[in-house]
Each structure stands twice: as structure tokens, then as C-alpha cells.
Amino acid sequence: MNVAYFGTSEFGAEVLRALVERGAVQVVAVVSQPDRPSGRGRALTAPPVAAAARELGLPLTQPQDASAEPPQAQAGVVVAFGQILRPPLLGAYPLVNLHPSALPRWRGAAPVERAIMAGDAETAVAVIEVAAELDAGPILAEQRIPIGEHDDAGAVRRAALELGVPLLERALLERPQPRAQDEQGVTYAHKIEAAERVLDWSRPAAELDRKVRALSPHIGARTALDGRPCQVWRARPLAQGPGAGQVGAELVVGCGEGALQILELQPAGKGRMAAADFLRGLREPPVRAT
User: Tell me: domain 194-280, CATH 3.10.25.10, correct?
Assistant: First the structure.
């Protein structure tokens, strides 16, 4: 079977590479979002899927409206694409979507992050038929994924990739019987807003730990230590510590309930570093987190 591939994100790029490497289906066209300004210099930057398509030597288009002119193929694969699909693409050929959540829970843009933030004990990766409503199509295949107490978004996405690509191939080649989603359990995984990345030290340590894990290793939680902004990449919750917002030894920050020890962080303008290396570079250890 030859397929057209629609994707944008890093997860989409990883799925594309895996499909090409496995070779069960032939990717004959890749459709991604247009290049966007990125970074401090606001230089135009290709989406990860577009960059992967070029590396793999695959035909690539980056239209503003991917639905207007469907590429020729026997079927289409959609993974974290970011455009609402409509006719004539909808109806041109079978379209399947790989979505890393336990649908109908966490439809939308940030399913892995939202599952971890909510404290879900498990999630899933599902292959669904693409429908006009966001992530609402019937399920063709699904595999559950446990979320461990130390798992971050990177770990969950790796599991979704490993389990999801074979499911995707099965859905394309075997066309299993679809089952409708249960509309009673619908929740939406809205895009992560900048304000949500800030650690509120009045909240319980367990909640802040989930936020750090949900935003790692791709976005990063934010705080300021003695007014110096930084991103927090790894941390661990503790039962006890200093008062909320106070910073104790070994970068243990007090929370509304318990404390959070920062293990890896990235000060503004610098690279990621272990907490011990960060503290060695200071004249005085920080005393306040905001």
C-alpha cells in the first residue's frame, strides 16, 4: 500500500522515520505545515516532519491548506498535523490518525502532557479513522500504556512510538472492524499555554512534579530563583522541606504541601545542567523561588 503522510511535530517525524524504516507501507508523499519563524532570531524553520522528509528523500509539500489538493495515494496517515482536515481531502481515500491517548480521554493537541499533569495511571496509543470532529473518529486499534511515577513525556512518547507504528500498519493493511468512541468520557487536551509552564510553589509538590515531567524533555517548566529565570527539566517530590517558595540546601524548594528538589535546570541563556553544577557556579545559593 502507498500512503500520503500528514504531520508536523517531532513525534510525527519519529513515526514517519519508523514507517519508512519498517517498509510495510510505502510513503509516496509527505505534507507538513509551512516553515515558521523560530528562536531568538525568528529565522524561518522547517517543522520536524518536513526536515525528516527531506532527510529521507521523500516528496514534500507545505501548503497553508492541505485539504484543498489531496496528494495521490491509496490512503493517508495523520500524526500531530495541526490542521483541521475537510473535503476534498476528507473522502478522497481512507485517512487514519495515530493519537497518543486513551480516547475519548484527551482528544486534542497535548494528550501526553495532559495525562501526566492529571496524574493518570495509564494512557494509550490509538489508531482512529479521521472524522470531521477533532479526534472523534472510530477506533481501529489501541494499546494501553502505563504511566510510571517517574515517567516524563519523553518516556510516554517513546512507548507510543514503539507500540503505535505496528498498530498503524495493521490498521492500514488489515482494516480491522472499527468501534465507536464512548462520548460519555470525552475530555480535551488543550495546547499548553505559556502561563501553565510556571511552577506555583503554593501548590502541592506532587502536582508540581507531574508538571515538570509532563513538560520534559521538550518544553520545560519555568520558575525564577532569586529573580533569575530558569527552566526546570527534572525534579523529585519530597515529603518535607522549607516553607512555600523558600529554597533550602541542594535546591529543595518548599511547596504548599511537601517540597520539590530540582535535579536538572537551565538558567536563561545557558545550557541544561545538574543542580550541583548550577550551585557550584553561584557565589551564594538561592533563597527564594517565584
Answer: yes
